Amino acid sequence: MKRILIPLCLVLGSHFAIGQRSYQFNAEDRLFREGKELFSLKNYPGCTDKLEAYKKQSTDLELIQESDYMLVYAAFEQGREDTPDLLKNFLDTYPDTPHRDEVNYLIGCTHFSRGEYEKAVFWFKEANIDLLSLSTQEAYSFRLGYALLQTGERDEARGYFARIREIGTTYRDASTYYLAYIDYAEGRYDQALTEFSRLKDHPEFKEQSLYYITQIYFIRNQYDKVISSGESLLSAYPDSKNNTELYRLIGHSYYQNGDQEEAIRLLSKYVSSTEKPLRGDLYILGVCYFNKGNYNSAVNALKQTVAENDALTQNAYLYLGQSYLKLNEKNNARMAFELAATSTFDKQVQEVAMYNYALTIHETSFTGFGESVTIFEDFLNDFPNSKYADKVNDYLVEVYLTTKNYTAALNSINKIRRPSTKILEAKQNILFQLGTQYFTNTRMEEAIDYFGQAIALGSYDAKARSEAYFWRGESYYRSGNFERAASDYRSYLSSTTQRNTDMYALARYNLGYCYFKEKQYNEALASFREYLPLEKDNKAATLADAYNRIGDCLFYNRQFAAAEENYSRAANLLPESGDYAIFQKGFLMGLQKDYRGKISTMDQLVREFPESQYVDDALFEKGRSYVLLENYNAAATAFDALIRQFPQSSLARQAGLELGLLYYNSNQPQKSIAAYKEVIKNYPNSEEAKTAIQDMKSVYVDLNDVGSYASYVNSLGGSEQFEVNEQDSLTYLAAERLFTRGETEAARKSLVNYLQSFPKGAFVSDANFYLGSVAFAHKEYAEAKKYFTSVLESGNTKYRENALARKAEIEYLTKEYEAALESFKRLQSIAEGKENREAAKLGAMRCAQFLGRQNDALTAANELLKETKLSPEVQTEARYIRAKAYIGLKEESKALADLKELAKDTRTVQGAESKYLLAKVYFDGKELDKAEKELMNFIENGTPHAYWLARGFILLADVYITKGDDFQARQYLTSLQKNYKGSDDIAGMIEERLAKLKK
């Protein structure tokens, strides 16, 4: 550092003394002399003009240099923008100038005035202070010290300020102030306080000195002095720029002294007067609001403090949780306690937070990702000696009984070596609930397993055990195991003590169906009759159906009058689905030889139920009745109508045979032959075609025209395809007998042998169908498809429907969705049985969805939903696919009805996704409050399908981001990040949103 010489007699001037040389001026130097005179008088514009004029006519290099010096100095004093460049050019032009130190100083001053302190320090240090005028040295020292202070070189700055304080005049008080500031900045508070105290009455430095004195009191925790000094400053300087910080210091001090009202007053002023309030003071403000019962304000303050991962955030989350509890926002409280509980900065805070977190989960029945069980376990593991431990043990038992995350609960219980009776009771209930959960999602094997475990556990929870029998019976029934289903229904009926319930009535009804499916008609009859008085709803579809089944049982027992009476009751109870009852009633009239009554009843069915699956049956039976009444014309009309309207029906083939026989008996041989030929043409290779060939032979014989018959048969490829020889028949029947006995491998060999021996045999279609069935049962789908395709290509209609159903199913299972869709559509057009018709619609709907054909999926779903007596599972799937199709077609409003219905049961995967999609539709439509409401309900009710719940959390965060509530959004995302265990796209979605929130 250059030596500083600042005499006590220093008088600071703004310009320098001009060179020491004595000049001898002549007349030619008059302009120079006048310019210099004006310069000494600080008339800078005047001197500039004179000196510029002088330079133009002078050749004296020494005086020109001196002129240039005075010109750049004048530019400096006038504050010209180009001063730094002029000064630097001067040095470049005159490198040996005696004014070098003065010019370096001037350059430093220009940068100093512009706040360019690093450059100022450089140029100041280029000047030798000893060579500056005495009037300049103190200003030089002060400005260099200040520039060093601004560039962080406090030690070096201190030396300059200290020297000025000792011997300076103009800058003595300012230097004292900056020395005090340096002491303050470096933590030497005693020295700083002494120095600031010397200046507290100085008019220029009073306010700032008192301000720093207040800061020092605050640092020393002298809160009374902070309040006294700070309040005085606020009163004396109401508009000071320091007041924001004073509000903070005084407010904090009031808080430390226990005066929270005053703390709120000052800290709220602090927060409102700064864009970025400090987290610690926001925390104190939030705590004060909480203690005063102003919980909304507490939340607003505290939620601004949780951006960092530290102890302050942990404490803030604990207070946030308590505040939310007071506001009855338990879901927000749960998340706040969770975030405090997962931080480890303060173990005491963590203990209290974890306990409160566990309680909020317990009280809100939150079932998101298993927290309701594991949090109590974690608490006992982390804080075994906690004062809350006994309460937590009691709560854990309650959680087992109320949780909806049954898998987590069961895993927890299974860890207990010696479970109490209460725990075992809870376990039995959980096993039952797991069974119903899997049942709801159509996973029958798992459902049966869990119901079985619940039953095997004993009678800790008698109600759960009893109902497990019922639902296991339902599971067996849906799986087609009617014998085991019946056994479980009987066990439920004998074990339950609640006999006046819908479930008890339904068990009787379902037991009747088990017997009915097993053709145990007497037992079925008794069970359906026991069901009737138990049904409370006189309009229930099951009640009408029970009367139909009672009628069927009586019919099989040949109690026709009683059967007819029950069919009538069914039709009266549920007229809109009374087609079956009307058909059966008419059929019974025929059995009792009331043919006219039968015809009238069949006409009623056709008239009232034109879309019924029994219309073709009704037309056929009507034609048969007219035949028995010998009204052949009317019979022919009925048969013709059947063939025309239902050409794919098996009854149409029989009707063709009936027409041929009818015309033959009424002595109309040509019409008879024409009718038989229609059957052969329309249904080649069918059993009816073979029968038509044989019957037509009799007609030609009566006409004595055997030659025409032979010619016709030969045109079809010879008679061998219509006549069965004995070896053909015996070979096939032997193979068929093996198949019906279940000896599938032996049957397969025999059937293949038959096809090789009789490639054009009478039973080729039968053999191909049975071989296809064997291959399908062994999951040899390519082989099975080949055989079923052969059946379809043969034209034989005997197995056409079932072969097509199997082919479509194979194509679906092997993901040949295009082909499967066409097969299902074809099946839908020819299916006579309810099961195949429903399966065709269901398959077509699923294929259309997989292919992304929204319109086809929509049509198929609508067709399927027209079916009566759809199982709840199929109805749910159809609604789901219809809703998805509407969304895919950008017609979200049409999807709302289905989404709302499906979202009622989030136990199913379709219900869980629909709940999410419903909220998404609201969100996309800018209905943010509706979206939020749906998602909060989703979170509160829970679902076993964690992925869709996680998507719900993310969508809820999006709702809050859109609303501008980043705090809430961050809470939900952070909570999800900590608790979601899936390895899918959820983590990426969370990270993406958290990154945006951070920005």
Major sheet? none
3D shape: elongated
CATH class of the domain at 290-418: Mainly Alpha
Distance between the termini: 46 Å
Strand content: under 5%
- Helical/strand content category: mainly alpha
Mean of residue pLDDT?
Answer: 87
How many H/I helices? 53
For this structure, the CATH topology of the domain at 290-418 is Serine Threonine Protein Phosphatase 5, Tetratricopeptide repeat
Q: Rg from C-alpha positions?
A: 50 Å
Low-confidence stretches: 1-24
**In the CATH hierarchy, what is the superfamily of the domain at 290-418?**
Tetratricopeptide repeat domain
Explain the layout of strands and helices.
Blueprint: H1 30-40, H2 44-57, H3 61-78, H4 83-93, H5 100-113, H6 117-126, H7 134-150, H8 154-167, H9 172-185, H10 189-198, H11 206-219, H12 223-236, H13 243-256, H14 260-272, H15 279-291, H16 295-302, H17 311-326, H18 330-341, H19 347-364, H20 371-382, H21 389-402, H22 406-414, H23 421-440, H24 444-456, H25 462-478, H26 482-495, H27 502-517, H28 521-531, H29 541-556, H30 560-573, H31 579-591, H32 595-608, H33 615-628, H34 632-645, H35 650-665, H36 669-682, H37 687-702, H38 706-715, H39 726-740, H40 744-757, H41 764-777, H42 781-794, H43 800-813, H44 817-830, H45 834-851, H46 854-865, H47 872-888, H48 892-902, H49 909-924, H50 928-941, H51 946-963, H52 966-979, H53 986-998
Helix pairs in contact: 1-2, 1-3, 2-3, 3-4, 4-5, 5-6, 6-7, 7-8, 8-9, 9-10, 10-11, 11-12, 12-13, 13-14, 14-15, 15-16, 15-17, 16-17, 17-18, 17-19, 18-19, 18-52, 19-20, 19-21, 20-21, 21-23, 22-23, 23-24, 23-25, 24-25, 25-26, 26-27, 27-28, 28-29, 29-30, 29-31, 30-31, 31-32, 32-33, 33-34, ...
